[in-house]
Amino acid sequence: MNTHALPDSTAQAPRRASFTGGLLAGYGLLVLVIATIFSALDRQIFVLLAEPLGLSLGLSDTKLGLLQGAGITLFSGLAAVPLGWLADRWGRRLVLAACVLVWAVATAACGLARDFDALFIAAIGLGLGEAGLAPIVYGLIPDIVPERRRVLANGIYALAAILGAGLGIALSGALVQALEAVRHVLPAELQPMETWRLAFLAVALPGPLVALAVLLIRLHPQGGAVLLDAGHARAAPALGPFLRAHRRTMLGMFGGSGLAGLGVAASGNWVPVVATRIFGESAAQVGNGVGSAYLLGTGAGAAIGMACVKLLGRRVGLALPVRVVVIGSALSVLASLAMLLTQNATGLYLLFGLQVATLIAGSVLAPTMLQDMSPAALRSRVIAIGSALTVGLSALSPVLVGAWSDRLTTHPHGLLIAMAGVGAAAFALAALAMVWAEPHFARTVAAIHPGLAARRD
């Protein structure tokens, strides 16, 4: 009897190991999604409360733009490269957990700020903490899941992260409304505080728990080599020579992504302010409207993206996400210009949702695209450099819109004109940059992973 039981238990061991590995990979992916939603909540509460925050501290649109652009976004880009280097050298989980704690503390500091200078320093801390998110997460996913499930995991994470942005602003609106309802039961020292201050303090609370969950992520045994083709293992390339050899790919892909990000930021950062200032929406209404636009746009974009994979995947190949982003950027130009004609907040939300949908269609494959154009040993650093270029361009958006708006103070819709104009120009340039980058991208992937294109076809 024992001789029959031994083979059975031996046969079951791989299945148990596979099941356990799947659970651990699922846990790791879930934690990354939660960390991303937490980051979105911190960022969106800043956007949602920009109007009451500005009125409370007497800030102009230019200063609000500086807080979101130079304070958060620019410093996020500047810190991405050193954080990517630290993640590759010292461990992606450890660095990501530290980033979570930094942006949680910075969020609380925003709620305690008494003037523009203190708020600007807190915004820099928020940007520094969030800087490591994209390069570390995109570098960590292949370390968590096996190669055969990497594309699926990337798609799940990208979709959940984008949904998290919509969920973040929806939760922000609900949080503001709930804080007013429970103000009377808060500790006595908190009750006199303005609602926007309480909101910043509330969203900072989960930080330590999220950081602990990140540290508990388990790595897949083959994670360190998932991107190397069998039979093509090679010594890790040096960063400098790699970037020089593929500079056209990096410049075109990251420049195009940055310009698209600049366009999205023009709408994402200022639609809530336009809806409040021009159309008289409350914080809760803005949260529901913009959150719904994110969620519906994301669902529609994901469906469009999947349809493109089925219809165009074999014909276009590895460059499919690039092609879809080009089309999405072109459509977003039209959506930005149409915002000038909208007569109410609902129309504004719908057009913003259209921008989200057109860009999501390509973005759900963006993580895989980034990993494909990056050698495994340089993954976080290459993605971090791309994030720095992308974020650097995106950082210009709030400042450009705010400065242009301040020059149109005599026009009743000056802010709307500035937002739509910056968005349309950025999306148009993004489409042109991606068209130029597409053939260079294909050559880079073929050089790094010779067998990858054949496996994807």
Mind explaining what this structure looks like?
81% of the residues lie in helices and 0% in strands. It is an all-alpha fold and 457 residues long. The protein has a single domain, classed as MFS general substrate transporter like domains (Growth Hormone, Chain: A, Up-down Bundle), CATH 1.20.1250.20. The protein is globular, with a radius of gyration of 23 Å.
Q: SS-based structural class?
A: mainly alpha
Tally of individual helices: 18
Q: How would you characterize the largest beta sheet?
A: none
Tell me, what is the CATH class?
A: Mainly Alpha
CATH architecture: Up-down Bundle
Overall 3D form: globular
> What is the mean predicted local confidence, pLDDT?
78
In N-to-C order, the SSE pattern is: HHHHHHHHHHHHHHHHHH
CATH fold annotation: Growth Hormone, Chain: A
End-to-end Cα distance, whole Å, is 49 Å
Strand content bin:
under 5%
Name the CATH superfamily classification: MFS general substrate transporter like domains
The total tally of domains equals 1
The stretches of 5 or more residues where confidence is low (pLDDT under 50) are 223-235
Oligomer: single chain
Helix content: over 70%
- Strand tally is 0
**Radius of gyration computed on alpha carbons:** 23 Å
